[in-house]
């Protein structure tokens, strides 16, 4: 899997760079492909195991180690996505992508590229949004890999063909199909300041157990999805409707005394983090439209909250 390219897609560093320097970039790629930080770390670790298992002569022949590692990570993630569907069908309740704090979520753009183009910077930021990651979950594994690597990380279809095992033309079609899914699901993004104000008002209304205020901040058809993974208490089905959601929130507030809420960035957007006894117990991401909340994704599965407690 050696690469003969001198100008690799994704701005990967020259052969003289230590491949360990690719770790953070590879995590960014794998997280977007898998929606799980733990699985992303496993995929990247496996790629490095394969790298160091190569004979010295074979490693020396790889002109761009980062390109080699990205190809391997892409193939590993494709296999993981194929098996993940069956595992997630057995998952207790709803499965939500693992939320990330800002310290882990912010990419540097293309590896080794300090001057990332503003349009690409926006694409990288948007690809962390929880709503975006949820749309990715509806794609086939091949669609997801083609779309993320091409549209987000700017890898050419000729290179994707070696990862996905299809022709460049087929990879182009996969990315196009995935792009249509994203466009169909996307709603206009409110300014960050407005998002922060709405989430802050929501926090205050929840703390005050003000049902009327909560209803006013939610669209009539708003939905809450909670991921407990069968490990903690959580609604097993989505809760729909502003009134139902407001009553649910007040009820769980009564059942969890001593819980504190904090405004914090979740996957690059304003969100809420709930703590009890110093431990993070819930991380909530929000989707908004026209200044009101349309979606709440609340992750309670402790296995998905380790990045928030470490």
> What oligomeric state best describes the polypeptide chains here?
single chain
List segments where confidence is low: pLDDT < 50 over at least 5 consecutive residues: 1-17, 105-116
Strand content: 15-25%
Return the average pLDDT rounded to an integer.
86
Shape: elongated
Brief summary:
With 310 residues, the chain is of the alpha+beta class.
How do the strands and helices of this protein lay out in sequence?
Blueprint: H1 23-34, H2 37-53, H3 56-60, H4 65-89, H5 102-105, H6 118-126, H7 130-137, H8 141-152, H9 157-164, H10 168-185, H11 192-207, H12 211-217, E1 218-227, E2 239-240, H13 242-255, E3 259-266, E4 269-276, E5 279-289, E6 292-299, H14 306-309
Structure in words:
The chain is α+β, with helices and mostly antiparallel strands. The chain is 51% helix and 15% strand. The protein has helices at 23-34, 37-53, 56-60, 65-89, 102-105, 118-126, 130-137, 141-152, 157-164, 168-185, 192-207, 211-217, 242-255, 306-309; strands at 218-227, 239-240, 259-266, 269-276, 279-289, 292-299. Strands 2-1-6-5-4-3 form a 6-stranded mixed β-sheet. The longest helix has 25 residues, at 65-89. Residues 1-17 and 105-116 have low confidence and may be disordered.
């Amino acid at each position: 899997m050696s690469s003969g390219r001198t100008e690799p897609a994704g701005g990967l560093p020259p052969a003289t760079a230590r491949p360990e320097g690719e770790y953070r970039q590879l995590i960014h790629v794998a997280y977007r492909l898998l929606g799980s930080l733990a699985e992303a770390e496993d995929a990247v670790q496996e790629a490095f195991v394969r790298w160091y298992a190569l004979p010295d002569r074979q490693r020396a022949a790889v002109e761009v180690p980062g390109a080699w590692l990205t190809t391997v990570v892409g193939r590993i993630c494709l296999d993981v996505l194929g098996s993940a569907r069956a595992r997630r069908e057995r998952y207790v309740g709803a499965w939500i992508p693992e939320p990330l704090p800002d310290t882990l979520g912010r990419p540097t753009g293309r590896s080794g590229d300090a001057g990332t183009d503003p349009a690409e910077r926006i694409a990288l930021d948007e690809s962390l949004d929880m709503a975006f990651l949820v749309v990715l979950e509806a794609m086939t594994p091949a669609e997801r890999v083609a779309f993320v690597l091409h549209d987000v990380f700017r890898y050419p279809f000729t290179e994707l063909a070696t990862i996905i095992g299809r022709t460049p033309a087929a990879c182009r079609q996969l990315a196009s199909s995935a792009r249509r899914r994203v466009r169909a699901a996307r709603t206009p993004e409110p300014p960050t300041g407005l998002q922060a104000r709405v989430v802050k008002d929501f926090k205050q209304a929840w703390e005050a157990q003000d049902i009327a205020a909560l209803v006013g901040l939610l669209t009539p058809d708003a939905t809450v999805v909670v991921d407990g993974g069968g490990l903690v208490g959580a609604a097993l089905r989505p809760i729909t409707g502003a009134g139902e959601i407001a009553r649910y929130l007040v009820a769980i507030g009564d059942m969890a005394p001593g819980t504190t809420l904090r405004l914090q960035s979740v996957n690059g957007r304003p969100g809420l983090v709930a703590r009890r006894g110093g431990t993070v117990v819930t991380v909530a991401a929000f989707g908004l439209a026209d200044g009101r909340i349309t979606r709440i994704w609340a992750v309670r599965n402790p296995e998905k909250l380790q990045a928030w407690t470490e």
